[in-house]
Request: fold
Amino acid sequence: MAPPPFAVRAATEWLSARARWHPLEIAFWLAAFAAIYLLPEQHLILTEIAWLGLFALSLDLILGYAGIISLGHAAFFGFGAYTAALLAKHEIINEPVLALLVSGFAAMALGFVTSFLVLRGSDLTRLMVTLGVALLLRELANRYGWLTGGADGLQGVTIKPVLGMFRFDMFGHTGYIYCLSVLFILFLVARRLVNSPFGLSLLSVKGNPLRASAIGISVDARLVAIYTVAAGYAGIAGALLAQTTAFASLEVFSFDRSADLLLVLIIGGAGYLYGGLIGAVIFKLMQDYLSALTPQYWPFWIGLMLVVIVLVGRDRITSWTAPIRRLAARLDWRAAARRVAAASAERHRP
Amino acid sequence: MTMVLETIGLTKQFGGIVASNNVSLQIAKGARHALIGPNGAGKTTLINLLTGVLRPTGGRILLDGEDIGNLPPHKRVRLGIVRTFQINQLFGDLTPLETIGLAVSERRGQGLDWWRIVGSRPDLVTEAVEILERFHLTDVIDERTAVLPYGKQRLLEIAVAIACRPRVLLLDEPAAGVPEDERHEILAAVAALPDDVSVLLIEHDMDIVFSFADRISVLVNGALFVEGSPEEVASDARVKAVYLGEEAVDA
Reply:
């Protein structure tokens, strides 16, 4: 007894609802690309926002979609940054896009190896393990100064033009276009991924690993997969920093960077991909504005904001933006109503 | 009669406590087999051993004669040993449609597809909708599972298992906690399970057991106590003394 076609069509609509482009999303990306022409003086900070947004997107993939919390995501960021800087310094790969890909794959390899450490245990265990891995890498980079430049950082890096055509400039024009393009492409891939059957299985693993394995999902394998992908994203974000500044220092691995990243994602809200990007915009603008007012005390305001967010979000800090998103969904209501009307018209057709 | 699932001397010890004691159980193809026993008799332990959540201390588990005792839970599901849970284990943030769609896509081995949008395979969606219709879940198809009435969640619990296309279905107290007026829906769903699926039912409610089962095993203190047809078990004096008697005292 096959179900009637209208029911299947409606079900298809509902299933693919998450993947549908919302007008606000299109507006977001139009604004980001419009900034290339409209805000030329701001390209340096926009560049930072772009790679920070990518870095936060990476954390969102594991925290918002698979429930893995991390306080050491800078491990992959830093690994990517040093890989890109070393590739350029020793002229191993001169073309930045290719070097970027190699850096991403290097970070993925590191992510794959360390993913097995986060499979077991509570959130607290995961916080400690990820923190530990990042500290470890930082000290390794410090110890092997002949390779990394140690505490002075990696000096004398020259980045060649992108695709052999676009030279990096001191105003960040090329940097912003480059970072934004990379961010956009990787965002599209991530968006596709989270709306796929694989993405749905991640949500199920996050929601109830016991049931997930009871419907035949290998929970460990899924976590390894997404952790590896996220590490690659973080590595590319780090490589973007190294390429746009032509520099890498131990600070790329720092605890502050991992902690700030968590803050960025919480500001924007986890689990809907835009949280990291919006968080990066707010965080960088606040940092820029507040540190101009009070150079030493700007973290005070960030701290205050964090407290307020947690109070507003109450039960789950990762979802404090949910009411806003529900509002956005309601704006989309007319379109939804039309679809339902079409489905029921189909039903009554003889 | 061909046996689908068989345990040979299955034993599980937790420290000094023997939760399963030398259990040799046989489930025939297409069986309606009930497993009963007082609280703490080791029924859920046995389910956990069969599904691979727990590793046995001793003994073997055979599916069609193949030893599956060392396989992890998700591989046993792929081979057709599927369970439901006594306490709902569902995906609160997903809808029934997404839950069933996910189970179907995993069963078809498409769970790693990451470049395809959910819902883009018409045959898969059709199958999911068909299962949801069968379990009377179409009216809540797009609601968050967490906000569904308890009876609907119990139905979804069974529907998810069916979506995995089980060969042996382990039902752990399917009607537990369901209010009286929603009970018949669950029982109808259990009664309408496909004939080719072998069912092992764990249940406290004797009305359900005797209306459903064609074979009953009684578990006491982790060991198999009596096994036989419903008539044999109902008339067994030892069972009355140990189990039914205790039940009567409880009531």
